[in-house]
Fold Transporter substrate-binding domain-containing protein.
Amino acid sequence: MTTYFRRLMKGITAVLVLLVLAACGQSTQNDADQAADSPADDQTTESVADGELQDVELTLDWYPNANHVPIYTALKHGYFEEAGLNVTLKMPAEADDPIRLVGANQTDIAVSYPGVLMKARAEDIPVKAFGSLVQRRLDAIMYKEESGIQSPKDLEGKKIGYASDSISEEIIYSMVEEDGGDASKVEMIDVGYDLMPALSTDNVDALISAYMNHEYLLLEDEGYNMGHFEFQDYGIPENQELIFIASDQTIDERSDVLTKFMTALQKGYKTAVENPDEAIETLFENEENEYALDKDIEIQSWKEFLIEYMSADGEFGTIDSAQYEEYAKWIYERGAIDSELTGEDLTAPAL
């Protein structure tokens, strides 16, 4: 979500450097410890055979919100335990925690974003996507209808608020060009966390980096007549919104755990869809005190967007390696990353 996004993108370069250094140091240590690791692996296998649960830490991308309904539903109904897993949730203290902790093998699984994954992988950080949480994009270009904006070309001469992300800049420029406009006449304004205030006070004319199921709904709730453009309508490759990532090491050594995790989540999603009111109440039971939820907005987000967007291809949790490769190629060609990536670089083999 956008509250963390600016800190994430500004902090990611430092994080990538630290992870590379840590990986270099860890390689030698891993060689020395290989023999000692084998008994521990045997012990883990014996524990699972004895019926003990395997511990799994999941780091969320943001505070609990409607995007996480299947996770909390799976926890409440014991689906992780049925799969042999003891799943605990970790709230990110900083925006870069998910990618940083996974890359350093300090958390097992994290919720993240494809663009963040691609930037990390382009810097040789060993992380991949192995499943999806929200399969369709939630972000869009949004504006107040009174602005007179009717297509991306109309963004010429306008100020666009965004959360300090080079990919968002390239999306804007590309859409304006696709619509026959001059991208050099667009002014990008880094508004950080203050996306909604920037638009409501007319400091900017439109927003990118904001979510249709959050900022858009909140702005409508404040009485603004809103309009929006979806990226794929103007030549931007389709991509997923929220994904599950793990380190290459976890994917190689604990693929069975990741499979069990996704199987339990699929049950959580199915139960949540069949009982949508109960599911959203489960979220509210886990609300963080310091991040109070607007319950009406979260209910609308869940029922009007997420139930459909989480299974856009008809099945919850899947990822399409070819889709990731196409989007990564587009990002590379636009100059937002320095390395061309394949689907195999970005996604785990089918679990």
